[in-house]
Structures are given as C-alpha cells and as structure tokens.
Amino acid sequence: MNYGILDFLTMVGSLGLFLFGMKMLSESLQKVAGDKMRNILAAMTSNRLKGILTGMLVTMVVQSSSATTVMVVSFVNAGLLNLVQSIGVIMGANIGTTFTAWLISLLGFKFQISALALPLIGLSFPLLFSKNNKRQSWGELIIGFSLLFMGLDFLKSSVPNIGENPEILSFLSNYTNLGMGSVAIFIAIGTILTVVIQSSSATMALTLVMCNQGWISYELAAAMVLGENIGTTITANIAAAVANVSAKRAARAHLIFNLFGVFWMFLIFKWFIGTISDHLINMGAVNPFENPEGVPIALSVFHSSFNLINTFVLVWFTPLIVKLVTKLIPIKDAEEEEFRLKHIGIGIMSTAELSLLQTKKEIIIYSKRTTKMFGFVRELFKETNDKNFQQIFERIAKYEDISDRVEVEIATYLNKVSGHDLSEESSKRLQAMFKIISDIESISDCNYNLARTLRRKKEANIWFNQEVRDNLNKMFDLVEESLQIMNANLEVGYTGINLGPAYEIEERINQYRNGLKEEHIKNVEGNKYKYQAGVIYNDLFSEAEKLADYAINVSEDVAEINNLLVKPTSQGK
C-alpha cells in the first residue's frame, strides 16, 4: 500500500483547513450581518412559514445548521423564541444547510476556485489590519471563503486513489452488498462522522469527495446524507443538556423531526434516488449510478428535495411534535431556588454579540432573584417563630453563597467573550456588564448583612417599639421601589433607559435616611430605647440605604453604555 501516515495526516489537515475556513467564513458573516440576524430571530412570530424562511436564511448565511440550531436553543433558553417558533426555524435550518452541498457541487468540483484563493487572500489580507471593524470582518469573510475551497482542493488531492490502493476499501466491501442493510450501515456511518466532526456541512464535503474519488456509490453516499441529518441534531442536544426545559424540548424536537424524516425516506429510499437519477438523465445530466461525475449534483438534489419534502409535510404536524416533546420532557418539581445559569451555561454563541445578548438575559434573572432575596429579609424582619426565623435566615445565606458563585460564573463567561472581536458598542456593554454584576452581588451582600443584623437582634432578645418598626418598614418600602426601578432599567435595554425615577427614589431614600439619623441621635440622648437596640436600628436603616445606592449604580452602569448618564446634584449621598 502506497498510502502512509504522512498522507493520512495530510488528509486530516486538509479537512481541518476546510473546517477552519468554514468557521472563519461563518463567524465573519455573522459579524457583518449579526444585528440583522438577531433582529430577524427576535422578531419571529408563530407563523410557521416565516420561521422556516428565517431558519433557511440564517443557515445559508452561517453555513451550518448546527450553529443555527444551537442559536435557536439558546434563544428558546433566553425566552426570545417559544417552542412552536423554534421548530419552524429548525425546519428551515435543515433546508438551508443544503446550500453547502450546492456550493461545493457547482463550484468546488467544476471550477478551480482554489486557484483564485491565494490572490483573494492577498487582496483581503490588508483589511485585517484596518481599524474599521466592518472592514476587518469583510477581510475575514473573503479569507474564510478562500480557505474553505483551498481545504476542499487539498482534500480531493489527499484522498488516496482507489485504483492505486484498492485495499483501502477492503473493509467496506463486506458492507456494500447487503441491500437495505448497507443503506442502514452507511446511515450510521454518516451519523457518527457528523457527531465526530461536529459539522454536517463538513461531512457533506467529505462525502462528495469520497464519491468523486470513487470510494462509495451514489446510493451509499445518499445514505450517508441521511445519517448526517441525524448527526447534526446531536450538537443542539448537547447544548441543551444544561439549558432549561423549553430549550431541551426544542433540541429534542429537532431530533424527532430528523429521525422521522430519515425513517420515511428509508422506506422509499431505492425508488426515491432512482427517480432523481431518471429525472437528471432526462435533463441531459450524467447518470450518477454509472459515473462519479454525476454524483455531486444528484446528491445535492437528493439532499434538498428530501429536506424540502420533510419540512413541508411535518410543518403541519408542529402542534403534535410540541405535544410529544412536552410529554417526553415534563417540567420537574426541581427546587426553584437553584441559581443555575439558564442562558449562558450552553457555551459561547457563534458570535460575541449573541453571547452578550444571552448574558443580558442572565443578568436580569440574577437581579430579580437578588431582589427576591430582599423579600426574604422583610419576611425575616416580621418573623417571631424561632424555627421559621432560622429557616428564612438559612435561605438568605444560601442565596448569598450561590449569588457569589453566579457572579464568578458570569464574569468568567464575559472574560471568554472578551477574547472575541467586539464592536465598540459591544465592548461598552461588556464593560458595563462587569460593573452591573458586581453591583448586584453587592446588593446580595447587603441583604445578607441585614439578615445577620436581624439575627443579632433576635439573639440579644431586642424588641423594637411600633414607631421604630414603622420607620424601618417605610425604609424597606422605599428600597423595594428602588429595586423594582433597577430591574425595569435592566429589562428596558440599553437605549430607552430613563434615570429620572431612579434618581428620584434615591433622593427620597437619602433624605429619609438623614431624617432617621437625626431622630435616632435625639432618641438615644433621650433614652427612648436601649443603646444596643439603637445600634441595631441604625445598622438596619443605614445598610438598607447602602443597598439602594448599589441599585442606582446598576441603572447608571446601563446608562453609561450610550453616554446617557447625567448625574443630578445629590443632596444625600
């Protein structure tokens, strides 16, 4: 055999260059059109046709159905899409991924685009050093496109020649004459290859090269394409493994959709590929069963027609698919208090901008749960039963411990995102997010400090008179209002924020705190309550005011992103 380890590594390296080119092309396209894609997905309705068109368009742009479905799972996880909408987008992604096969079939084997690759890289290389992010992205796009076809060309030349090395196919020869058994085996091979390579487009390219070199027949190549349709669902299901229930259901719907498609195609497989061959021959094309040159076009027709038919048949059964995945993945009575990351625990998105969108959703939940923690503090303030008091205190302590961990996890994620290319606006958002999570964690610290002070009060058997209790309840009401305003500012976005209400409530809290201090000093001098009770009373309203300061900081952090921050003259800070 004339095929050694160096030749094998050359083939693997060629596949690696192809994958790298595809990744570079995909990421640069998303940078160029990232906002538009985000707006398209965010604006999705339950209209199934729009969902299919959206999934098809986005997949054609990013050149990977896996990237699209992972994106969809992430958006379902973030609440941007519901389950019905996600199924439509996933169906469209299956159609969009066939674009890669046509691209390779029409260009990769007919024209020597690789001959133009180096000149294209030479022309676009200076763009990489441009200070303009858009021009950089265009440079990366052209280079990625060039590398993709260079990789494909290297792959064609590095695949061993069957005529010179017939023993290469000796292990496959035992499985090529088993009728539908052979089809099933090559469906499994296509599935495994796609799972390993993590790209159905790359597996399709490899399949086309194998056909072009005479490794496998048109029939077995079509079987591998069916396997690729199953394998491509694995990525989304892996991504959804740590996501919420809705995201898991979306990923499982993708798997069910593709499995059912492969099942019905398997039943009519021989007739279907024969019909395609007959039509192509009638149109003057080469018979794919007899000549390897006819396989790429025939395989592209098979891939597209299968996914189109499967989509337009199953789209009418979307409600049934939703019911099925809902039964398969029921909502468990998991402990609601788990501060598990819901939106950013599934890995970096295909672009940094999309990752920041996920992070924003995570921060909103983080903020709301920290606000809920303040509600527990208020319960603790009113509780008189020792056992209940201890349970609430332990709950607050648990929230504080997990809050610290969530801050670290979000910060770690943001650090990963910062390693990617970011637009100027996205860089501002990322820096603001670091400040926001720090301030939210400080709110959590304040909540825990309030709880510890209340525990000191209980352990010392200190009782507040009605006037003191009323004063503290009023302070807590003001703080709760400031937290609600903070949450509203986080949700409204980065452009429509209004700091007016935030500054108004801060001023009211500061003035009330100042009034309580003056009154407290007089009460201590007049022996209206014991000194130790006065210390705890002072600690409580002072810590509550400090908590509100962090709440206004969060609103200011959001406003700073677009230079909307104009601080009024503060009278109490």
Walk me through the topology:
Layout: H1 5-42, H2 48-62, H3 65-78, H4 83-96, H5 98-108, H6 114-124, H7 133-158, H8 170-173, H9 180-197, H10 200-212, H11 218-240, H12 245-267, H13 269-282, H14 295-314, H15 318-328, H16 352-382, H17 386-418, H18 424-459, H19 466-492, H20 500-525, H21 531-560
Helix pairs in contact: 1-2, 1-7, 2-4, 3-4, 3-11, 3-12, 3-16, 4-12, 4-14, 5-10, 5-14, 6-7, 9-11, 10-11, 11-12, 11-14, 12-14, 12-15, 16-17, 16-18, 16-19, 17-18, 18-21, 19-20, 19-21, 20-21
Provide an overview of this structure.
With 573 residues, the chain is mainly α. The chain folds into two domains: 312 residues, no CATH class; 209 residues, Phosphate transport system protein phou homolog 2, domain 2 (Methane Monooxygenase Hydroxylase, Chain G, domain 1, Up-down Bundle), CATH 1.20.58.220. The chain is 76% helix and 0% strand. The protein has 21 helices and no strands. α11 runs antiparallel to α12 and α16 runs antiparallel to α19. The C terminus is likely disordered.
